[in-house]
Amino acid sequence: MADAALPKPLAAPAIWRRLWLPLAIFAALALVPLFFPGDRYVLTLVARAMILGIAALALDLVLGYGALVSFGHAAFIGIGGYAIGIAMEHGLVEGFVTIPLAIAAGALFALVTGAISLKTRGVYFIMITLAFGQMAFFTAQSLARYGGDDGLRMYGRTEFFGYRWLQNEVVFFYVVFALLVATFFLLRTIVNSRFGRVLRGAKENERRMRALGFDPFRYRLAAYVLSGAVCALAGALLANQTQFVAPAYMSWQRSGELIVMVVLGGMGTLTGPILGAAVIVLVEEALSRVWQHWKVIFGILVVLVALFAKGGIVHLIERRRG
Amino acid sequence: MSTPILELKGLRKRFGALVVTDDVTLDVLSREIHAVIGPNGAGKTTLINEITGEVAPDAGTILFAGRDVTRLPVHARALMGLARSFQITQVLPDFSVLENVAIAAQAHRGSSFRFLANAAGEADLNERAMAALDQVGLTARARIAARVLSHGEKRQLEIAMLLVAEPKLLLLDEPMAGMGREETERMVDVLMQLKGRYPMMLVEHDMHAVFRLADRISVLVYGRVIASGPPNAVRADPSVREAYLGEEELV
Lengths: 322, 251
Fold this sequence. Notes:
The complex is a heterodimer of chains A (322) and B (251). Chain A is an all-alpha fold and 322 residues long. Chain A is built from 13 helices and 2 strands. The longest helix of chain A is centred in the C-terminal third of the chain and has 27 residues, at 216-242. The radius of gyration of chain A is 20 Å and the shape is globular. Residues 1-10 of chain A have low confidence and may be disordered. Chain B has 251 residues and is an alpha/beta fold. Helix content of chain B is 34%, strand content 25%. Chain B contains 9 helices and 10 strands. In chain B, helix 6 links the parallel strand 7 (169-173) and strand 8. In chain B, helix 3 packs across helix 4, helix 3 (97-106) packs parallel to helix 5 (151-163) and helix 4 (123-136) packs across helix 5 (151-163). The model of chain B has no long low-confidence stretch (mean pLDDT 93). The A-B interface holds A 1, 189-190, 192-198, 200-201, 204-205, 207-208, 210-215, 219, 222 and B 52, 54, 73-76, 78-79, 83-84, 86, 90-95, 99, 103-104, 106-108, 110-120, 122, 144, 148, 161, 165.
């Protein structure tokens, strides 16, 4: 706290200090297809990590900045995925129609379920979001017309203007990459806006915010809808990657995994969720090859982070760097 | 000094068998400081919570700025110009001191459903915030996190958060509680500066402060107003002396 006497740092280095880590991550991601040319396995794996990174970013908006522990966010991923799959089942493959459709479906589900869940707090909020997530899961299971329990197989990826660009793994990789970067900067802007300030303020001290004239519910609901919409986009991408959607997309384990990604990486940082998603996808891939009971090791990892690295991986890295 | 900004009429509230607000009728005139005193457990904080909307009264009406606000939610009353400080200070601990005040200004200046422009860069909000911090003498602390402020400074910050909204009424719930002599003096000075510009309802235990600041005093005992009037009349009232016997010494 002795820095009051120091001269004010210049604006440019200050921004660099805040952005070096995400920019370094983005640079590394952008280089992956160059270092692994034609390696479908690596491209698919990293693209999957980036897609889940988008979903984790979306969750961080409500979890990290709003202190709202949503335990049903996998439902939005599933809804996004099913929107693409079902549209395709009916012959609708044009991305400029189906992607917005997926996003709108996620936003609508978030609006309805959020309006109800956000009337509760704490453990009740966790329970009620879990319940809505399970409702979505069982609804998907009951959709016999669209594969029911077995899921829905798609005969290709989304087209744009009639072209099947996404069929190419490198193109798909960079589309996902661009959407990840765009999501990061969009959410970063929102968090720092008037809206984001109110959302953060309500997390800090709800009573004070009410007494200042803010109704936290409205801001939380808007954040929840935004989060659901972005998650649905991630779901649409995931369905496109695997060309398959199944109820398992919406399982409560997946919702829990998203929370772990955010917390492991660093809540309320936006960089953290991207790192958390990457670490989980890659560690899962690596460990599952070594040992079939890899989840035990993974559990220990999560416990260690919870005990010794409050603030997540991002905090560890930034502290080390000074 | 004529029209009341706040009028409470026949306010009642009970928690189970305990009557905490018992037919309270009082008002705060524009420009005056109306102090509410009373022994612990007299229902002073509950009364403030009823005025702000955190607690719904069982009966009675609350008129604020000529409007019946009895059924309005907390945030709606706040937007009408009802500003309160809390007995236990309520600030945003991880926000900077400046941002605490800037967000208070934001509540009254345009929509907060703006998603793109950087809020911390809004010169209008920041200038208003700095002006309010200046009034309470906290400008030097503007850039630090509110969490590291001293107890007294947090109170000053809270006052700045109220002032920046240009409120119609200040409700101050024990602004001197837990303060040392020096800090109390500073707070009395701040409130003296504000006296005449903002009507205030002041709930306070520090009798020195109350008698220096108040134009009128109401005494609340077991939820009931047992005396109300100018300081000297209240001081001389035998029922007040009886209620306070062994509790605290009236100056």
